[in-house]
Amino acid sequence: MSLTKTVGFFAGTTLAIGGAAFGADQNNEFASEIANLKAQIAELKASQGDSWLTEQRAAEIRGIVTDVLADADTRSSLQGSGAGAGYNGGFFLSSADGNYSMKMNVLEQVRWTFNNRNDATDGEDQTWGFENKRTRLTWSGNMVDSSWSYKVAYYFAYSNDVEFDGSSTDLADAYVAKDLGNGLSLTVGQFKLPFSGEYGTDAGNLQFNDYSTVSNDFSDGYGQGLMLTYSADAFRAAAAYVNALNQTNAEFGADSPSDEYALTGRAEFKLSGTWDQFNNAMSFRGEEMGVLIGAGLNWADSNTAGDGDVFGATVDVTVDFGGANVMGAFYWDNNDDAAAGENPYGFTLQGGVFVSDDWEVVARFEYGDADTDADDNDWSTLTFGANWYMAQNTAKLGINFGYAFDEIGTTWGGAASGNNWLDDAAGEDGQWMLQAQMSFSF
User: How high is the pLDDT of residue 318?
Assistant: First the structure.
């Protein structure tokens, strides 16, 4: 019996006794009962101590906690043993221990272009229309444990002949990477080759609607093989050995590989800033000052008859000011095949300034010399415009105006197709175009 009930019981008894007794001895009996109650209360305290109420409450709380934990275990078992799901830079699924995960990303770019040429050979001096420039799905994550990662990317629409022909679904990235520790990582499969800084930027993070024509012409594109990378606080590098430069989804055959050897690599020195900020071609307001110097080399020997050695080099500098940026890149090749131009070269200079948190004005000049005797040997264009960042690179509108100072023909036409430049009639120049592109990357 608790102390409270005991006191209540004896108090009730006392009142009953007091109500039944009358006379002079009533007060004496009442006093005797009170004395008896005090004695019993003193006995209870002596046997249970002053902590009896605290212990009782603690027991009740322990019971409640036990019930809550049991309910939580039941609920977690219904969620796949604690598996996670949500959005963090992409929609993801993850096992409870984090050893297995999958993240899905989408890149969608819809473009409208108006192009004006003089005396076009096909009779269409003015051309305009919409296109799905890029529609890409990417799956990435880790497996086995956090040191193993993978990436698979498909282009369901891509109209740039430099990379994919857009006529069917094309596999882009398809690789597995292993973190070897101490900054080293090994990648096996198909991946974008390390060479050009501009081309190394994802298409959803560009400052213009597309890569520059000069970058498209000199970059190595994708390859199938092995790549070793190293990353530290202020330096990172990557070197790849592949079947051939600019080759995707090639099957094994009697003439494999396409090149006797194909090597490409890139090194970057970060003088200030963070590596993450250079994943974007622009410098948003609020970002810190950053300076990056990069250089790339490639070397390949064709497996076909005749001279086919190709050696190329590039160097680039990027400076971020936190709300403005400038980037310059130079490219040079040495080809054994003189018909293709022994020593073509080119450069780009581009930058942008944010006039508000969401609006940026941009400009780019590019020049290339194919080192041939063709009339369309030279390439020079000026592009300027504005970007409206509705949610930074997740949702943005880019408006570009471009003007070509030289005749555009077959020499540069393939690389120029990424920016919707068209071939001019012989001897004609002064082509211009206007573009508007919505880009969604999430």
Answer: 98
